[in-house]
Amino acid sequence: MKHYKSTYKQLTAIGINHWKAPVSVREKYRFTDEKRAAFLNKVSELGYTDVIPLSTCNRSEILAFCCQSDELRDLFIQQNDGTAEQFSKYGFTLYDRQAAEHFFKVAVGLDAQIIGDLQIIKQVKEAYEFSHRHGMVDRVLHRFIQNVFKAHKRSRRETGLATGAATSAYAAVQYARHHLKSLEDKNIVLVGTGKIGKVTCKNLMSFGARNITLVNRSKHRAKQLGERFELPVAGLNDLGELIADADVVIVATGADSPIINAEAVPECLNGKPRILLDLSVPRNIDPALDEHPGIKVVNMDMLEDKMDEAYRKRREYIPAVEAIIQEELAGFQHWLEEQQVVPTIKALDAKLEHIRRNELTRFQNRNNDVDQNKVEQLTRRITQKILAHSINHIKENRNNPEKVTRMIASMFKLDKDILTDP
Fold this sequence. Notes:
Elements: E1 11-17, H1 23-26, H2 33-45, E2 51-56, E3 59-65, H3 69-79, H4 84-90, E4 91-95, H5 96-108, H6 120-133, H7 139-158, H8 168-180, E5 188-191, H9 195-206, E6 212-215, H10 219-229, E7 233-234, H11 239-245, E8 248-251, E9 274-278, E10 295-298, H12 309-316, H13 318-339, H14 342-366, H15 372-396, H16 401-412
Parallel strand pairs: 5-6, 5-8, 6-7, 8-9, 9-10
Antiparallel strand pairs: 1-3, 1-4, 2-3
Helix pairs in contact: 2-3, 5-7, 5-13, 7-13, 8-9, 14-15
């Protein structure tokens, strides 16, 4: 008989994140859609069906149910041209309840560099939907993720974890404000007008920045955002001239390699300091530019929002969010335990229906003058009530599924073949 374990021991989390691995390592372990699809195809070939590969700016992780962790870890390393030694130094593998708690904390934003990061849940949903479309989310992992989403919604509705703009884009703007004192008179170049670029633009303008030039590989896309905020736009070929006059350059694109390097920076710059903020992983600004006189390169590892009052307020709600996580974990645990007795309930239902049909047929053959529909309804109600009382007893004893199954099977003489979860 197949039973689902009730102790999370089949749940595994594997990955690399910002707590141990610098951005120079994290950018190598990253799931693009193409790599994610290839990874899931290989996992499927191994016979697994419950796997979600996730990538954010600060992590690349795998959540899996009923998989061999060694096989997944090795595949994760191979997929990213890594080494076992590198993963041993920077990676992690979590099991059981620890893996479950970790993924909950990732999704709600407690494990983020920016506490309460609003972008992560979107990336978790995209990762889940990607795996679901590829047939790699079975009902147990699906149920687990639904509890994760519920915890996130509750953390926003019942606590102040979303106080302020908890995003890396906001942290980048705060960094620039902190070091330049004001953004109102500064020349700012924003490279990338996707999701993060749009959020960054809003944050910049909310803090008084007006001299913003939008740059994008697709000039049409840049124009759309430029018209919305009444800002000028430019192409990538204008970067050198823009950098020469800029106080701040913020880059947030999905490029696989740096789009700002030594060649893009004029040899002679005036004496004013420039901040180049890189919100991309892999990095889109060559880190070697930090050696250039007058340029300060800031990557994701250097961003935080701890100087912001909103950060301190968000921290106050961490215990409340952790309590919500434990409640939702308990909800999943309760559901998981109930799954252990589902085969028994199904078998009992089938047995009672078999008895009802046999007795009903015998009665109908002897009594043609009665209302057969009423007899049908009556017998069905009787068996449903017997089943309901039995289900309550079975669920009350779900912590010992084998014992209750043996008892019910013996009492109703259930066919052992029926006691198999389909």
